């Protein structure tokens, strides 16, 4: 592993970059890091059973997509909002007929808000679709697969392919300098104390059970564990 101002970099085969991600994740946990930003990186980092051009590409496109707007967060489609806008406009006319100017203006304003929210949701959906398509089909051919949030900035790139297999580079930067120093110390301990790192792999006990005609063994780490 190389350490520089831009982060912690590992060059090697797929197993090497998977191990690098696992070490940094564990080092962050040992430094007391938790929360959404940590789990987002833990979900994104390359896994032993994944492929860079399929799984990591999909996760990167999802991570890079435009955030949800108010309408999407409320679970409303553009059609839902347009229907509500029409209902509010009708109510506004009814208030005018009742000489309720204040009520009419209130309903009219609500109608406009729903129209605006519908337009926002439709725009985000269109941008997201184009963004995903462009990223998957074009950008990953020229740029690394990347991740970025308030905690971590990372990218993994396939740098060579030959008879000996593929070679990758995985660089991870911890955005907070003090935390980065803590992580660096923990990683240094791993380098000096751990001779062989046990890479996590997805369990497939169901396949074994089906082949042998026995019940799968209880998974280690609790009922929700999927790694060993």
Automatic annotation (TrEMBL):
InterPro entries: DUF5828. Residues 37-104, 201-228 are annotated as: Disordered. Residues 37-61, 70-79 have a biased composition (Basic and acidic residues). Pfam families: DUF5828 (PF19146). This is Uncharacterized protein.
